[in-house]
Amino acid sequence: MKNLKKVILTTGGTGGHIYPALAVAEGLKIKNIDVLFVGTSIRMEKDIVPEAGFRFIGLDIKPPRTIKTILKYLKGVWEGIKIVYREKPDAIIGFGNYISVPVIIGGILLRKKIYLQEQNANLGWTNKVFYKFAEKTFLAFDKTYDDIPIKYQRKFEVTGNPLREEINYVSENEEKERLKLEDGERVILITGGSLGAKDINDAVIKNWDKFLEDKKLRVYWATGDKNYDEITTKIVKTKMSDTVKPYFNNMINIMAAADLIICRAGALTISEIIELEKPSIIIPYNSLKVGQYDNAKILEENNSALVYTNAEADAAIEKALELIKNEEVLKSMKVRVRALKKSNAVEKIINNLDIWRN
Which domains does the chain have, with CATH numbers? Predict the structure, then answer.
């Protein structure tokens, strides 16, 4: 029997790093490739990846900031080298952040083919350090080329972000039908990601009466876990059609049905908005380190989203209430966002892996 090809995927820490890796893993599995994940033994990937049915090795590492964590991290790098030596992968794909460094170093030292994937508009620290050693780095957005010296640009390819498979099968009309919307009823989705966003939530609470007044408006509001109880005590009334929850497990379906989305600017959220062709009002998380402002700018410069700062969250919500009634503007935002769509990122990434020849 022919030996199975093997690919190690390495990342972790947040959903923004883990879910693109899982989307690629599913694609590799269909092609009968043996997939191994390497992450940490303490962050969310230790549960998410095995639950998705993939083999997982967790390294005991944290960001190397104190002498204790630096020593632990160096031990993690040694572990990473040993994993690569033992597993003998045909390729390694790193999806960014400090967690992927040990296996990437192992890959460089043991001369394995290394690939990187960048979810955000700007290259993250790990990808900046290692792209020179990679066969190719897969980019979510064309804008990232601005960060890259011309002589290295051939080592990069814009594929879009790998998104979960189900996004290819949702249809706006079907999802609207499923919600049994009344004639002329519009849908607004408000979400700050799985953790919620206090500034967005506070601004919604402040304007809640206006949401209640509009009988033709149906609200889906994902408050985030830690804010949910406090919010439900503050908003005594809701319309029968409104749904307020900590998070929606069927988020993709609700996004597909929405006429307008109010959200943060995480890389995956932006990619999903593009894929589903949705008008949006974006309030980026204001830490420069996270890079959300640059993600949001991609849609703003394309005139397919309006971007507000945290301090302007009230104005953003007021604008949303006005915009949701303006069908013409929503339609033109929708047409513009369509221009940013890329074809299937998972397929593009897998086809670009040089593992098919012996």
Answer: 6-160+343-351 (3.40.50.2000), 167-338 (3.40.50.2000)
